[in-house]
Amino acid sequence: MPNARQAIPSYGAWIAADPMGSAAQPIGTRRSMMTLPSLAEQYEREAAAFRQTEDFILDNEIRPRITAEIIEEHRRLPVGKHSDELERILIYLRKHHMVMAGKYILVCTVPHQEWCIAEITGEPDQPPRLLDETYSDRFEAEHGLFVKRLRDNGLLNRIEE
């Protein structure tokens, strides 16, 4: 650590202590220069860290909460106030982990009569791709969407056995 009389390196200068443990000095004064990773590499690392965190949450917080009772609670009341357990599951499933492509949404194809599950393409000027599943009731559609998200995340395996 430099004392008050020593020059402090400017913002962004990389500092490293030499092996003997003496005062820190900018790496640029050494024989080999250290390079920063590219922005693409930084984004890849950030995405990998985010995905690792999300996988941990899925395995340790969400998966243990999935029970037949929770699925039945959602079937009875897919819209409105939910228990804390169900609300946590819904928040996790709806956020889709920083990626819009592949996210499921409900589309009302005939006003107040028909709903369809659709998948966002991720392309800026492309409409969502409608899937084959259609429902005549909005609550049935909401529950169908919930079950589809559970199935896609491998969360129904224990329940269906």
Task: Give the SSE layout.
Blueprint: E1 15-16, E2 25-26, H1 39-62, H2 68-76, H3 84-95, E3 104-110, E4 114-119, E5 129-135, H4 138-152, H5 157-160
Antiparallel strand pairs: 1-2, 3-4, 4-5
Pfam families: DMF_alpha
Protein name: N,N-dimethylformamidase alpha subunit domain-containing protein
Domain N,N-dimethylformamidase alpha subunit: 55-153
Assign a percent range to the helix content.
25-40%
How many strands appear in the DSSP assignment? 5
How many helices does DSSP assign? 5
The low-confidence runs, each spanning 5 or more residues with pLDDT under 50, are 10-22
Order of helices and strands: EEHHHEEEHH
State the strand order across the main sheet.
Answer: 3-4-5
First-last Cα distance: 61 Å
> What structural class is derived from the secondary structure elements?
alpha+beta
- Average residue pLDDT: 83
Radius of gyration from CA coordinates: 25 Å
The fraction of residues in strands falls at 5-15%
Characterize the main sheet: 3 strands, antiparallel
Outline: flat
Total number of domains: 1
